[in-house]
Amino acid sequence: MAAAVGCCSAAVARGSGWQPRGRSGQRLPAGPQRAQASATRAATANTAEELVVATRASKPSTPEEEALAAQIQLHESWAAGARSSAGCSQWQGPELVQAYDRCGEVTSEYAKTFFLGTQLMTPEQAKAIWAIYVWCRRTDELVDGPNASRITPAALDRWENRLEALFEGRPYDALDAALTDTVARFPVHIQPFRDMIGGMRMDLVKSRYQTYDELYDYCYRVAGTVALMSVPVMGVDKAYKGPLEQVYRAALALGTANQLTNILRDVGEDASQRNRIYVPLDELAAFKIREEEVLNGTLFAASTGRIDDRWRAFMQFQIARARQTFADAEAGVNLLDAEARWPVWTALVLYRQILDAIEANDYNNFTQRAYVRKWRKLISLPEAFMRASMRPTAT
Fold first, then answer.
1. Average model confidence (pLDDT) for the chain?
2. Do 192 and 256 have their domain in common?
3. Does residue 363 come out as left (phi exceeding 0), alpha (psi in the -120 to 50 range) or beta?
4. Which of 91, 199, 257, 388 would bridge with 341, disulfide CB 3.0–4.6 Å?
5. CATH number (domain holding residue 260)
6. 245 vs 31, which has greater pLDDT?
7. What is the mean pLDDT of residues 25-48?
8. Model confidence, pTM
């Protein structure tokens, strides 16, 4: 919900005959190439404006692009101090205060570090972010929680109907009421919420991703959507007069980077406990890694404590792309409202360090879980504060 210093993926590809491909400048071995007209147009663009036009002209309509356009349109049309007519009349006064307090308690219980970050925001921002977090958590638990085995597409249909109702001012319970009040106070569009439910639908039926493009769509639905939900609450720096698209695209990159990091950290757990492989199968094949080797965890030899060299190279490539995606996000953080920058930078810096931890484990994400030690978290706070204190760059 919260972007990072990236490293050049050329270091991974050096001397191996690799070619450019896909989003964020990631590279693949020459075998799985795919020509992209957008890359050609972008390469011949002479100015930033031409690059934007070239990218837009070649970009197909996707759920991400449609939600981005809808969210920006709502944000731009939202007058200062506005409040939508979808506010809830049933939960008001003390009841609404209690609803927000409960959202804060849930956030504190399940996302302690994130909750601490919200303490650096204004009370209004923090409460709204709690309400969004709780809705996202409840949505995720439909397919990953204790009752996941009994969840059906029809159950997700009912959850989506409930979402529509709370946006119309008819919340089902107190936790819904907090979100109903949030979307009445801030220019938060419903489409990212719908798209997140779409990501849960994917988890019901899809356990493999053939290409990075497929995985990118999933990352948008389960993480990029959170960025679109959060930016309207965090707000944009008043000194920034450039296009909102720059802010939102940076946020989308951060959501993607966070989700890619989750996927790399949890490869072993997803494979052994859920029979899921989120890393792209065509990229596994490019590194001559078989699907069953990931599922069985045989890329790590317990007898020697060594990781297979193919997996090490594969993970180096994946981490390079995640870092580049963090770098893509970096430019937009300081365009946020000043009250939101420090917590977002803190989350960004800490999440990026998970990639460092995977490297420190010699890329063994089968039997070891990468995590950031408490002392590293503490010494990261000054770095985050310094970055948050930098003046935003207007374009």
1. 82
2. no
3. left
4. 388
5. 1.10.600.10
6. 245
7. 39
8. 0.81
CA distance 191 to 67: 6
Give yes or no: residues 249 and 373 share one domain. yes
CA distance 160 to 154: 10
- Give the total number of structural domains in the chain: 2
Instruction: Quickly tell me which residue has 């409960």 as its tokens.
Output: 102
State whether 146 and 251 are in the same domain. Answer: no
In-domain check, residue 124: yes
Query: pLDDT tens digit string along 76-120?
Result: 998 766 766 665 556 678 999 999 999 999 999 998 878 877 888
Whether the predicted pLDDT of 134 surpasses 80: yes
- CA dist 215 and 277 (Å) reads 10
pLDDT digits (tens, 9 = 90+) for 168-193: 999 999 999 999 999 999 999 999 99
User: What pLDDT is recorded for position 38?
Assistant: 36
Asked if the structure places residue 146 within a domain, the reply is: yes
Angle in degrees, 0-180, between the axes of helices 37-44 and 48-58, rounded to the nearest 10 = 170
3-state secondary structure of 252: helix
Asked which of 205, 227, 246 is the last residue of a domain, the reply is 205
Helix (H, G, I), strand (E, B) or coil at 67: helix
Domain shared by 253 and 389, yes or no = yes
Q: Which domain holds residue 249?
A: 235-395
Spatial contact of 274 and 207, defined as CB atoms under 8 Å apart: yes
Same domain, 176 and 286: no
Do 140 and 180 belong together in one domain? yes
Q: For residue 299, is it within any domain? A: yes
- φ/ψ (deg, to 5) at 329: -80, -25
Which whole-number Å values give the CA distances from 13 to 18, 279, 283, 313, 323, in the listed order? 6, 18, 13, 10, 15
Kindly state whether residue 221 falls inside one of the protein's structural domains. Answer: no
Beta-bridge partners for 20:
27
Determine the Cα–Cα distance for residues 332 and 244; give it in Å rounded to an integer. Answer: 10
- d(C-alpha 13, C-alpha 76), whole Å: 42
Closest to 60 in 3D by CA, of 43, 40, 37: 37
